Amino acid sequence: MSKTQWEATLTLPVSEDRDHIQGPAEAAVTLVEYGDYECPYCGAAYPMIKEVQERMGERLRFVFRNFPISTSHPHAEQAAEAAEAAATQGRFWQMHDLLYENQQRLGDEDLRSYAEQLGLEVEPFDQELAEHVHAPRVHEDFMSGVRSGVNGTPTFYINGSRHDDSYDAETLLAALERAAE
Amino acid sequence: MSPRATPLPPGTKAPDFELASTPDQTLSLADFEGQPVILAFYPEDWSPVCSDQLALYQELLPEFQRFGAELLGISVDGIWSHLAFARDRNLHFPLLADFEPKGEVARTYQVYRAKEGTSERALYVIDADGIVRWSYVSPVGVNPGADGILHALESLGAEGAA
Question: What mean pLDDT is predicted for residues B39-49?
Answer without folding.
Answer: 92
